[in-house]
Amino acid sequence: MSLKKLYLIPLLILFFIFTYYLIRNFSDNKIYIENSESSSSEIKLDDTKNVSPLIVEVIYEDLLLIKEGQTFGKILNNYEISNSVKSKILESLNSKVDLSKLNINTEIRITFTKENDLTEIKRISVLDKKNNHIKVIKKDDNYVVETSSILSFTKHVLKEVTIKDSLYKSAIDANIPPNIIMQFVNLYAFDVDFQREIRNGNKIKIFYEVFLDRKHIVRQTGNIKFASLALRKDTYNLYRFTTDDNGKSEYFDSEGKSAVKALMKTPINGAVLSSGYGMRKHPILGYDRIHQGVDFAAPKGTPIMAAGTGFIEKIGMNGGAGNYIRIKHLNGYKTAYGHMSKFASGMKKGTKVTQGQTIGFVGSTGMSTGPHLHYEVIFNNKKINPMKMKLPSGRKLKGKILEDFEIYIADLNKEMQVN
Predict the structure, then answer these.
(1) CB of 297 within 8 A of CB of 283?
(2) Closest among 309, 287, 311 to 392, alpha carbons compared
(3) How many angstroms separate the CA atoms of 213 and 131, rounded?
């Protein structure tokens, strides 16, 4: 046998062995893979029968403003929640804010989820009139309440204004907030007749607080710290000061005399003196008779204030005076108010009222030709002219309290110079 044939025999044997190996392994594996894929597909098809439906939870937030005639309960009715959940929310919120007294345009944010048509309220935020965020937050099966103020900064503002046309318009034109203007007017209600004594060219100065949120937006005004009213002959300076003996904040002049007097000359804001004290021809009866009070013309519904602290000794219809209140004060003084459209809530005989408290509203009841307040001051049972009475002063600071006050106003004057 030749050498070449000897080499071919082993090679042929190896070839057959390798071919057998390939057939044995790879041809079977292909069949296995095909069967495996088929089996796997069947399993997947079978498993889809047991897969749970897809759960989709979407979070929403509504920003709402209270409209006229709308209540918080009516707002909640727009959400598909159970009565028990609604009761929990209302009970939680009412513990911090009176929901029956929400102002128009009160801001309310409601965060809720919807899960396959089921609604769940997660959080409610109410911004009250004191700039507090009242939050009701869902925790487990209950709602908890959290309160936080949005006010972050206090700023002092100084405004100096020369009066043109009217004090109110001039102050508004100088960007002084309306409630600060009314505070200012009330401070001088004991000494100044704003209808007769204010003239063009008179000057006012007001140093007051404002409160800002985190974005430095003014959210609220505070108290007047200093006020000055310069008339033609006199200048009235008043400082807000808290005394250590009683912890109360009051207004005092530069000598420590209280701005508070026994009675206010004008117990109504924004009114016009339409008839003075003394003899006049009666507008209805048509003959001359003494007018033992003063009349202030004002729109129907204008609030009327108690001129001083005291007790109501008479209330009700009183002949030609219409709806009438008479208040007994200290030191022999009484004040009377006639022709009211209605009395303020809670007014009755024996009720104690404080100076500046609303007791009723301007009307035209009784013998009256139009809406106005008839105002009388009675001293020792004799009617006197309210515009000319000399009013007893309130408190006068003395001793250590006066020394503290003098240090305080010196510091405050320096602070105003910086502003």
Answers:
(1) no
(2) 309
(3) 9
